[in-house]
From TrEMBL:
The gene is rfbB. Its EC number is 4.2.1.46. InterPro entries: dTDP_Gluc_deHydtase (IPR005888), NAD(P)-bd_dom (IPR016040), NAD(P)-bd_dom_sf (IPR036291). Its cofactor is NAD(+). This is dTDP-glucose 4,6-dehydratase. Belongs to the NAD(P)-dependent epimerase/dehydratase family. dTDP-glucose dehydratase subfamily. Coiled coil: none annotated. NCBIfam families: dTDP_gluc_dehyt (TIGR01181). Keywords: Lyase, NAD. GO terms for molecular function: dTDP-glucose 4,6-dehydratase activity. It catalyses: dTDP-alpha-D-glucose = dTDP-4-dehydro-6-deoxy-alpha-D-glucose + H2O. It comes from the Bacteria. Residues 9-300 form the NAD(P)-binding domain. Pfam families: GDP_Man_Dehyd.
């Protein structure tokens, strides 16, 4: 007799991290069947799921704010993992409203169907909810750090996390949250920092840095991230928050210099532009809890090799 199939609703699965997650889960667990709901905004691309949509992965074009649609799909599912979001800081500065709708109202809509059908829920969040650290600080944010978002994007993600926490406490939903650092890897939209630089350099344009380029990010390869998400979903403690990072801290200018070296271009082939308003200086997350509780460790930590592979891919 076969094992009971697990029906997993993945929202935002046609985006960068969601599509990498779907591929990972389908390879990892033959008992999982996926229903992917994605609005296909400019950031979503059905091609990211090429070769995946089929008997074990159904695709439904839809909006997580659509309560009737989400109710009808959730009624048949066991778990829901939410990647759907407006995710680009520059867009949030230009027009915040879609961030409020998808990131806050959308999460609320999902929490209500999770409550109704008693689904296991996981919310994907970001290190940006904690605000930033001084550039020379050696501190890291941990699960107990206060939320101090600085941009419309991070404020909308922080709001969504607060809703999840309240639904856990008030309604006892079986939920977890993870906050992760900057991801990079295959299928990322070219609006994001690393693919944008690779695309510019391949077109013969210099790399482009906001401000003085000294802002520091903690770079996590997407394959390490999706493996962590799978572990949290199946072995994480209900009600907990897990921070995911790979202790790979580099300034933006250092990333650009690595790319220039990988692409055999002059080390000064970059230019500076005006700084992003409210630009966070430095993010760093303490990953001890996920290591200790779930025995998760980052594996793809060779940044130079990972960048070289991406240069080949884009
Ligand atoms: N990429 C990173 O570095 C990073 C870092 C930390 C956290 N995160 C979080 O991870 C999640 C996924 O990020 P990503 O980089 O894959 O983003 P992405 O922009 O590549 O993908 C988001 C997906 O959500 C879909 N979507 C947007 N609004 C929707 C709606 N209303 N209904 C249904 N689908 C909708 C889009 O079409 C797209 O496919 C987000 O919650 C983001 O905040 C990302």
């Amino acid at each position: 007799m076969g094992l009971k199939k697990i029906k997993m609703l993945v929202t935002g699965g046609a985006g960068f991290i969601g599509s990498n997650f779907i591929r990972y889960v389908l390879n990892q667990n033959p008992n999982v069947i996926i229903m992917c709901v994605d609005k296909l905004t400019y950031a979503g691309n059905k091609q990211n799921l090429a070769g995946v949509i089929g008997p074990r992965c159904q695709f439904i074009k839809g909006d997580i704010c659509d309560q009737v649609l989400m109710d009808s799909i959730a009624a048949e599912c066991d778990m829901l993992i939410n990647f759907a979001a407006e995710s680009h800081n520059d867009n949030a500065l230009a027009a915040p409203k879609p961030f409020i709708e998808t990131n806050i109202v959308g999460t609320y809509t999902l929490l209500e169907v999770v409550r109704k059908y008693n689904l296991r829920y996981h919310q994907i969040s970001t290190d940006e909810v904690y605000g930033d650290l001084p550039l020379d600080s050696l501190a890291k944010f941990d699960e107990h750090s206060p939320y101090r978002p600085s941009s419309p994007y991070s404020a909308s993600k922080a709001s969504a996390d607060m809703l999840v926490r309240a639904w856990i406490r008030s309604f006892g939903i079986k939920a977890t949250i993870s906050n992760c650092t900057n991801n990079y890897g295959p299928l990322q939209h070219t609006e994001k920092f690393i693919p944008q630089q690779i695309t510019r350099l391949k077109q013969g344009q210099p790399a482009y840095l906001y401000g003085d380029g000294t802002n520091v990010r903690d770079w996590l390869h997407v394959t390490d991230h999706v493996r962590a998400l799978y572990m949290i979903l199946f072995a994480g403690r209900i009600g907990e928050t897990y921070l995911i990072s790979s202790d790979c801290l580099y300034s933006n200018v250092a990333i650009v210099k690595q790319l220039l070296a990988v692409m055999h271009l002059p080390s000064d082939f970059y230019c500076y532009g005006p700084d992003r308003p409210g630009h966070d200086l430095k993010y760093a997350l303490d990953n001890h809890k996920i290591k200790r509780e779930l025995n998760w460790y980052p594996r793809k930590t060779d940044l130079t090799a990972n960048l070289a592979a991406l240069v080949e891919l884009y």
